[in-house]
Amino acid sequence: MKTIAYFVTPHGFGHSTRAAAVMAALQRQQPDLHCHIFTRAPRWLFAESLNGPFTYHELNTDVGLAQLDALNVDVPATVDRLAAILPFAAGLIDGLARTVADAGCKRIFCDIAPMGVAVAKAAGIPAVMVENFTWDWIYQGYVDLDPRLQPYSDLMAAYLDEADVYIQTAPVCLPRASAKQVAPVARAPRTTPNEIRAQINVPADANLVLVTMGGMDWRHNGLDALGHLAPVHFVFTGGEVDGALPANVHFLPQRSGIFHPDLVMASDAVVGKLGYSTLAEVYYAGIPFGYIPRQRFRESQVLADFVHAQMSGLPIAEESFTNGEWTKYIPDLLAQPRFERRGRNGADEIAEMMTEEQRNTDPRS
Questions:
Q1: Distance CA 145, CA 168 (A)
Q2: Would the N or C end of the chain have less CB density within 10 A of its end CB?
Q3: How big is the CA angle at 76 (ends 72 and 78), to the nearest 5 degrees?
Q4: Confidence of residue 226 (pLDDT cuts 50, 70, 90)
Q5: Structural domains in the chain?
Q6: Eight-class DSSP state of 239
Q7: Quick check: 33 and 137 in contact, CB under 8 A?
Q8: Mean confidence (pLDDT) of the chain
C-alpha cells in the first residue's frame, strides 16, 4: 500500500484532524506512503499534521451542515446545498475514479464523506469508512424541522452501506455490528508543555485554560472579566475579540504556528464547543473539559455522556458562553481531577489494522 486516497468532509476541522491523525499513523508505519487528500478543509491543516508525502485536491466532497455560527445550524441552507450536490453526478465520480486509479491508490479512506465510497466503487478500489457518526443519522435530528432532509438522509445511508471496511472511533454514536471499533482518534502532541508556555508567555507554574471553538468563527465577548481571575491565564484560538485584552489573556490566530494538540497538552483545562477532535485531544491530555453542548446536534449528547463516563469536566450553557458568565465556572473546572492515559491512540489501532489487512490481501504491496 504505497498510495491511498482520503475523502474528508470539510465540515469544521474535527474530521480533518481525525483523518490527519490516521494518515500520520499510517505514514509512521510506512514513511513513503503517499496520501491523496480530497476536501475543502484547508491544506495547511494537513501540512502541519503530516510528515510524509501528500497531494491536496481541493474538492467539495460533501455538505455536512450549513452553520450560522460554531453552535447553530441553518437547516434550510443545508437542504439547498444538498440539492446542489446529491445525487453525485456520474461524470464527476467517473473522473475522480480515474484520478485515484491513475495515482495508484490501493485504498480510499473516507471520514464520513460518502463521495469517497462512490468513487471507490467506480474505481474498483476498496473503501474504508472511518466515523463516530454519519450524516444520515445527524440529519434525522432535523427532519422534523425540514422534511426535505429525509431523502438526502436515505441517499447518504445508501452510499455508506457500500463501504468495504467500516471503522468506528470512540465515542461511537450508532454502533454497527459489522464495524471494527477503536479508541478515540487524535493527533499526538510534539512539543513539551513548558516550551509551548514559553512561546505564549505563560509561566510554567500558572494555571492555563485553553478556549477553542474547534476551528469555527466566534466573537468572544466580556473578556475583560478574565483579568479578575489572574493569576489564571487564558489562551483563545481563532475567532474575534473586542477591545483590549487583560495581561492574563492571550489570543492566537487560527494559523498561529503552534500545533493545537501541543496547546491542549500545555493546558490545565479546556473550554469550548463539544466536538470530536477537541474531546479526543482533551481525553488524551487527561485534563478537565468545560464543554458547550450543541442543541439538536445528535452527536452532542453522546459526547457529553463520554465526558462524564471517561473524563472530567462540566457543561457550560451556550447562553453562559455567549454572555461571558462562563468565567464563573473556572474555579470548579480547574478543581476537577486529571487522568493519566495509558491506552493506545485509535489512530495507531487503525494503522495497524489496515496494514495487517493489506498484508493479508496483497502480501506484495
A1: 28
A2: C
A3: 70
A4: confident
A5: 3-186+345-361 (3.40.50.2000), 193-334 (3.40.50.2000)
A6: S
A7: no
A8: 92
Give the DSSP H/E element, type plus range, for residue 120.
helix 114-123
Contact 162, 257 (CB under 8 A): no
Residue located via cell numbers 422534523: 144
Q: Which of 277, 262, 356 is nearest to 30 (CA)?
A: 356
DSSP 67: B
Kindly report, residue by residue over 11-37, the tens digit of the pLDDT. Answer: 888 899 999 999 999 999 999 999 999
Beta carbons of 275 and 314 less than 8 angstroms apart: no
| Cβ–Cβ < 8 Å for 232, 248 | yes
CB crowding 89-100: b at 16 or more within 10 Å, else e: eeeebeebbebb
Residue 112 DSSP one-character state: B
pLDDT of residue 97: 98
Residue type, 126: P
The pTM of the whole model exceeds 0.90: yes
Residue pLDDT, tens place only, 230-247: 899 999 987 666 667 889
Q: Listing from the earlier edge strand, what are the strands of the sheet with 249-252?
A: 249-252, 233-237, 208-212, 269-273, 289-292, 313-315
**Grid cell digits, residue 330:** 473556572
Q: What's residue 362's pLDDT?
A: 65
Task: Report the DSSP beta bridge partners of residue 165.
Answer: 128
